[in-house]
């Protein structure tokens, strides 16, 4: 097999020469991406959420253990009955305490919870999206490359079967089997969400493998692996990035839905759990400051993934 | 009798970064009634753009910048019972109708031109094979065109006419109830031609009418077009890159390059008395089936991009005969016969005469001899100039 | 006269056949659905000699591209053998195949599809070298690529090495495709319509380049094209294909100046020419190419053929037979049915015969009555149809009007027959070439085409 | 005039049936792999070993697993779905009662979604890149990103809690004072279904729009769209009659995918609104390990998807005359 060794460059100059055109290409792609306003908006939202998840302490006014009237742990005093009755407390700016988005029924600051929960959603979205791409893209590639053989047929029948299983209930079963942890939720989402990815990649592969550049690689004696990895995959990856973004968005919503149904890892902080709490503690219509922010955060996070995904679709669309 | 008179027509495509593609630049030509006129040129020379612009069918970012398209015919509501423009319309300064009753298509609104499309000017698009809508019966698509422009016709009458039209182009009338996918390539092309004749237009624009067809079918379609022309007296504006097809069917033609007309005149003149370096180069690079030993010579370089071009001759970068003047401004159309007889350059006044846009047609004999020499066209020679 | 004869052929193709199965899923197989294969190439034999440019011409769907792809092992033949330099390429060891891959290359039609959009020019051209471990290290490889780039007229090479295909023009792309084929220094290149997507003014440059490189690299080409004038310009020898069959092959000039097969004749008649002057003859052929999924029996071309052979004992003219045979085909295709007769206002069987005897051919070949009626009928009295045949036709037309198409077909199948539909013509030596047509089978049919059939025995010995 | 041959249909039905068999087997395995079982809740600490054994026997749990599997598969062929331990009724009766309620909710959202979605998609695709397209498209993506239970709460909050216009739960008025006539029942159902449908369609239409928009945009480059314009037809006719009609074809395929999306949505919405359908019991039965009910609900939903796939094929042949299923050319 051809090795990449010779190409890694005998001198720095050739490496630079080899990479220059690729960097140039990326730059052009970036320019086209930024033509889309929603793509830029999506990116900005995502950057904010990323910062929240990496350094929540910088943005949050309190820790998640902070309790109204009492403050940060260690907790030494208890709330008075009157104080308890005032919870959940609407937004307050210094009087009697500082909580810009109010508190929940336990007295935790909503804003702090919101910011500390970003990490969970981000993790689930990216991990589930990545995982489902890792399942869907290779299967789609194989299915398309060996199109019209038993391999393809088997994969497609399997996809048919999976489509017959309703996503959310199936997810509940999967999570129930393995126990409710964040990791299991991610695996469950990935197992159920790779289908679209697989089908699209398959279709793209089917058309790509008929291109004459693939045929000329074959004429030159290229092996199947070389054709898949050098000629088909690089042309499929942009589309699968689009699906990664969409799957990530779907995962964020799916996790919230699971939390609503009571299937969430309640040791973690998440927007879904904040909403589950408001339902189970019965404050849906009484505490808008508690109801709205987590929902909006979920929406913005999912939307930012969609925004990025659809803008990228335009950039990668060869028709332009 | 002139049917169509295109004067100094310039068409631009706006690009996001603010520049514009000069797809057609001050193009003039005219088509007589009953004749076949050809626009020949390579891809990207602006021929298709030009044809589409006549009936305002440009893509969204394309627009007519300046020029007139005088057409002998007018809107139904402006016409008297003979189909000529009413005197009141001619006199009305707000309406783009000239003394002789010709209407300026370029000045019509989109809504107005819609009434003239197909009724006066039918256009067969480049991808005629995909021009039939796959989800409707072929006959119904012809009926649609008839009913659009002749609302007084009943459906049954329109159906009969559709079947009759199909039969005239050699398709069994029963096939009117078939869908396009049940037609072979040649039949689709014939069906589109039948559809084009549905409202007996005065002008038929055929954009690459035979490009996707096999040669035997192409032969039949060319015959079909000739027959229809005899039968309906329609003028045909053909657009093609295929010089041999054009040579066979056109009475007159214009050779386009880079959005400009380089040479125009009767077909015999263009091929027999070629008077432009580009046409000479094109002839050199085109193989013919009849001659056994020929040497093909291609024109070096590639066509210009037409994005905000400089004022010089569009062909000069590939032209072995370019001189100082060519860089300053694109040459106007010079009268070839005049230049040949007098040896002086005189701008052509008659659009129908043989004209060529080149500063050097006063030394025509020399150009023709040099053009036959292969060395003239080598890259080095042009670069060393 | 034929300089190829005394040299060893580089490529020998013998009885090559390729059927494409319609895709079949497991379920179809279980349920026993009959596959109906596309007969892309159906029994082609051809020798290609070292240093030749052999042209393959034909209309779309004639199997020329499939043939080319089999020669470079992109498709496996269903039947038949391809020998390259004496070795059967269908039975090669791994090692032999590696060697073969270095010696045989292909250039594809569409330069916008034949280069991977995500690979630079250098990567594209160097790929065959890498795959075949040919030139040692990066620098040597780069030098080799530069050299090939200059050879194909893309100099200075530095400008192109790191460019991506979308930055290049069509002509430049095709030159790069040629460079990729040349970089391994092959012996044989299959060129599939290499210039059909290029502009006229660029085309000649690429063709001339290919000719120059042939000398420089000592190449043999198979040049596939639908454009006969290009075949004439490029090729020493040519083969004409129709529906998977090779109908005629031989020296290009001979074939073009004096076509023997009726299909070849029609094909050349159909080509328009820039040369002004005399009016060109139009192609005398009916209808269009049928589907390769269900090709006609016997000679593939007979339903369209102008010289279709009447049966023994036919005492009318050949033209009358051609019309009668077309009548039969129309009934078979369902073009003539009680329904269509109704809509065309056809009153009786006679009128239906007159309608059915028309030929869908250019006007110059039509009969007077046909022209007058706009191609919708011929006067039965004015064509020389034997009385018996005429009776059969009227009977059949009567059956058609009664809605009994089957019966009509049975009658016609018995009376209107031709050797062309029953037997498949074998390639026969005819003059300098081979022709697969019954006209050249036996001397008995010579009078049908007296001008061309006389030379047949000349090259029968080789 | 349909272009589906009987043989093709038979083949498709066989395939669908096989698919269902595999889905059921998969379900059997998965459900049995969940920790715990419904009898855990029936067994109290005071029971004797014998009592426990009897309970196990009643529910067929003493047999080996492969036997249970065989029984399950065979029983389903005869329509015997077994008894529900938690609802204490025949599962089949439960399904018969609940399925129509789900279908009402489901069908109406599906229909509304598939009218609004392609219609919006048609406009956006036709004017792709315009300011209007950009703003509507990004808004719809925002809607698509909302968790369905959350948007349901917001609707309940506004229309029930604040405005007191519409009921927030159940399918019927709980203690009706009105006469039970078909009309009053229907009106009552419509009154109750309004909020669930609003919540579902508010998000649901986006799926089909996302498919329609790009295909519509591709279709604008087709030769027949150009020709339709060249014929002098108005932009509206060109868009609706020539372009949209063709762009609808891929949307039919997408219907199956958005169906899956809708099932998820209705599972949540039924739970929020206490709508007594399948979505409500599918969650509770899984959580309570009520295997017979869980199996049956999964099965019914799978049947729904499979039937929809078949229907899509039929719709396809009506939309696209080029497609002819099951006949060699």
From TrEMBL, chain A:
* Location in the cell: Cell membrane
Which coarse location class describes where this protein primarily resides?
Answer: membrane
Identify the keywords attached in UniProt to this record, alphabetized: Cell membrane, Membrane, Transmembrane, Transmembrane helix, Transport
Q: How does it sit in the membrane?
A: Multi-pass membrane protein
Q: Which residues form the ABC transmembrane type-1 domain?
A: 118-309
GO cellular component annotations, sorted alphabetically?
A: plasma membrane
Q: List residues traversing the bilayer.
A: 38-59, 97-116, 123-147, 236-261, 287-310
Enumerate the PROSITE patterns for this protein.
ABC_TM1
Family assignment?
Answer: Belongs to the binding-protein-dependent transport system permease family.
What is this protein's name? ABC transporter permease
Organism of origin is Halobaculum litoreum
UniProtKB/TrEMBL annotation, chain D:
Q: What is this protein called?
A: ABC transporter permease
Q: Which InterPro entries match?
A: BPD_transp_1_N, MetI-like, MetI-like_sf
**ABC transmembrane type-1 domain sequence ranges:** 99-312
- Taking the first listed entry, what is the main subcellular location of this protein, grouped into a coarse class? membrane
**Where in the cell?**
Cell membrane
The alphabetical list of record keywords is: Cell membrane, Membrane, Transmembrane, Transmembrane helix, Transport
Gene Ontology cellular-component terms listed:
plasma membrane
Supply the Pfam families for this chain.
BPD_transp_1, BPD_transp_1_N
This protein's source sits in the domain of life called: Archaea
Q: Which family does it belong to?
A: Belongs to the binding-protein-dependent transport system permease family.
List membrane-spanning regions: 12-31, 103-124, 136-159, 189-211, 247-269, 298-319
Q: How does it sit in the membrane?
A: Multi-pass membrane protein
